[in-house]
Amino acid sequence: MSDKIEITPTPIQRNCHDVAVELTQICFKKSPGLPDDISKVFAKFFAVAKLCECTNYKDLKNLLPDSLKDILYNE
Asked: What domain range is 33 assigned to?
């Protein structure tokens, strides 16, 4: 039996809460907001992240602006 134990790292999985927290932090990074403003922004980001989680990928592609679609799909 070997004394070495090797562990392969697993990719970090983000959930809707993580996404909403990080986007809210980015939003208020330059200037802090009032607690009510922060909670409203967080709630909006959380709702969008939750909706994206439940939506088909093909439906989300249709929401992209045309300029971004050109960059992503015409390379």
From this structure: 16-73
Q: What percentage of the chain has pLDDT greater than the value 70?
A: 96
Number of domains in the chain: 1
Does any domain span residue 57?
yes
Burial class (CB in 10 A: 0-12, 13-18, 19+), 72: exposed
Would you tell me how many other CB atoms lie within 10 Å of the CB of residue 48? Answer: 14
> Does a structural domain hold residue 5?
no
The 3-class secondary structure across the chain, one letter per residue, is: CCCCCCCCCCCCCCCHHHHHHHHHHHHCCCCCCCHHHHHHHHHHHHHHHHHHHHCCHHHHHCCCCHHHHHHHHCC
Q: What is the pLDDT of residue 10?
A: 76
Q: What pTM did the predictor assign?
A: 0.64
